[in-house]
Specification:
Layout: H1 2-40, E1 50-55, E2 64-69, E3 73-76, E4 79-89, E5 92-99, H2 101-117
Antiparallel strand pairs: 1-5, 2-4, 3-4, 4-5
Helix pairs in contact: 1-2
Amino acid sequence: MRRFFAIGLLAIHLFNIAGYSLVFQYFIYQTDTNLITKLDLNQYRESELIQFKIPISVPYIADRPDYERVDGQVEIKGVLYTYVKRKIERDTIYLQCLPNRVTQRLSKARNAYTKHVNDLPQSKKNQTGSTIKKSGIFSEYDFKTLDYQFAAPLATASTYISYLSPSPVPGALEVPGKPPENRG
């Protein structure tokens, strides 16, 4: 009986540590895959699309005057948008997006639940003016810094001259006779 009670408490503790985050992430994944399926089947209203124009400066980019289906998400001013179509003309990318309200509500619910569970202030901001964020094991922004150092080339390169010799090891001494016998 004690063993089941201990396993139950351990399961509750593990769920409190990371389980609720995984459950919310699963629901967000499901809503995103359902939305992408609907978008692939063109089950959306053209009137709901919002167009964004993004200037780019990429040399040798090929123009694509017709819209093509793309997947992705972007958050602008607190609103989450899902890409539907994209076209590229000269120095501008045109994105047509749908607001993703379901995923946005799930993300807000996850953040509110995280604040509640960890006893973080609900609506107050800290002294720097930004909200407190719980950092987990897997960071969303994990930038790795690479540091390269290049050495100056040598002024003169050494030249190696190899001489052909009949023995496999150059400079080996030949033994003058037989080794002594072991008398012991």
